[in-house]
Amino acid sequence: MKKKKKLYIYILIVIALFGTIFFLNQSNKNELYDKPVSDLNPATRAILDDPNYQNIILPAELESKVDSNEGSFVYFFASDCGFCAQTTPVLMPLAEDLGIDLPQFNLREFEDHFRKYAINYTPTLAYFKDGVEVARLEGGISTNGSSGYTEQNYIDFFNEHGGQGAAAQ
Amino acid sequence: MKTAGLVKLHMWDKLLIGFTMIILFAVFIAGCGSAEESNENQGHSHGVAATESEQLETTASLADMPAFLDNHTPLTTELYSEVGQYMDILEMIHCYCGCMDDDPAHDSLLRCYLADVEPGKVTWSDHSTSCGICKMEAEDVIAMAKQGKSTDEIIEAIDAKYKPNNM
């Protein structure tokens, strides 16, 4: 009887421990990136809850966006890139105002995609249709007279390549 | 005898439960700790220093390119292969990507490419691979140096193009 009781206690402890480990693993895995938080670059960890970086796509989604016959914009950025940190808070609200869905691809987490999509400079805003890159803007926004694009450059780019994807606006 | 047996069992119970509690508590605290840490970082999304987010790789010489370049475009690889020849100018250039405002900071544009150069041991930084400004600046610097411009002229041109007015 006593032995049985002890056995139950052992079993309970083992279950509790495994349960805790499982729970912690689940809670540690980031939904946006589908990776454990500990595997993310520190700069990516810092923007996980930033409202300007919530439209993250992963490699498989990126491929489907590129291949889409409706056309899609993609914002290639890197979480550790200063030029991107200046550009994103301007660009995301701008796209939203125009009714454009702007998926964000964090190259710092998927570095082989620099070469795959021939990204020379972060950030790069590109427009894809039927698996072909139609156009891109390389680099970020100009701040206080520094080299870069204006908001109007981005608006023009969105309008020019809006196609069917932006027809809803 | 019976009482003694019960006491013994209780002791085991207590030990085991206590032990489990300690482990659960430790794990819980560790979990909360890392959550807090990530929350802290969010306060200043610019706050992650380039020295924390970059990855370093060593090779034997400036002619041996780091393996991380396999992930990058020919333009990026070309830049990395050229910075070694223009180190004296690049270390005079301010990088306007923000990395020089960090703590600890990069000390020049050169640091975005090369962390350390010693005989037989070159330490590369991959910071510039994901830094549009770092590449644009270095491209301009190298192009101007090839035209024979002086270091002062290059510094002036880079500041005029990339330096925000409020800096």
UniProtKB/TrEMBL annotation, chain A:
TM spans (from-to): 7-24
Domain Thioredoxin: 60-142
Pfam families assigned to the protein according to its UniProt record, in alphabetical order: Thioredoxin
Lineage of the species this protein comes from: Bacteria, Bacillati, Bacillota, Bacilli, Bacillales
UniProt keywords, alphabetically: Membrane, Transmembrane, Transmembrane helix
The UniProt record lists the keyword Ribosomal protein: no
Protein's recorded name: Thioredoxin domain-containing protein
UniProtKB/TrEMBL annotation, chain B:
InterPro entries, sorted: PCYCGC
Pfam families for the chain: PCYCGC
Annotated organism of origin: Paenibacillus abyssi
The name this protein goes by in its record: Lipoprotein
